[in-house]
Design goal:
The chain is α+β, with helices and mostly antiparallel strands. 22% of the residues lie in helices and 37% in strands.
Length: 171
């Protein structure tokens, strides 16, 4: 994605016209930002992930760190992902990390592989930049995303960040 800034994959799935899903990541632009702002997760997840508007504000303030992208299935916006790239973790300037900063899948689009696709696309971007590990944090509570991340191969590092569990995936 570094060259084209776009990841695309064909996969079997429920697409109205062709029964093939065309998942891809797109940059946030003046043409799609309003739809991005309207994207929301399920109400029971609202305390687990910040809304897209906060993520876009953070991407504006930290443009060298944030990598925000919209997740599409064909022409349908189904989610938002934001990675952090080349982040000096904690007080150690030599501990440079890459990771998932946000992952918001629309309430009516969950359970269709969009989150997995987003994690795989971010992993591809991290590998293209020379990274070998992808980090994520999650709220350790019932109904949280821990099971999702563990199924994808993340494992807890034993660290905490803002009360959240830190996980890592070896690429």
């Amino acid at each position: 994605m570094t060259g084209s800034e776009r990841a695309e994959i064909d996969s079997p799935g429920p697409h109205p016209a062709t029964n093939v899903r065309r998942m891809r990541l797109e940059k946030v632009t003046p043409k799609n930002y309003a739809a991005a702002l309207a994207l929301s997760v399920r109400p029971d997840q609202a305390d687990l992930v910040a809304p897209v508007v906060k993520s876009l504000a953070e991407a504006y303030v930290f443009p060298d760190l944030a990598w925000p992208r919209l997740i599409y299935d064909g022409d349908r916006l189904v989610g938002f992902v934001m990675a952090f790239l080349d982040y000096a973790w904690g007080d150690d300037p030599d501990d440079i990390r890459y990771g998932l900063w946000r992952l918001n899948i629309a309430a009516d689009a969950q359970g269709n592989g969009y989150g997995r696709f987003a994690v795989e696309a971010v992993s591809e971007e991290v590998r293209a930049r020379g990274g070998t590990r992808l980090h994520v944090t999650w709220e350790p509570r019932a109904g949280g995303p821990e099971e999702f991340y563990l199924k994808l191969g993340f494992h807890p590092t034993g660290e905490q960040s803002g009360g959240q569990t830190v996980g890592v995936l070896d690429l």
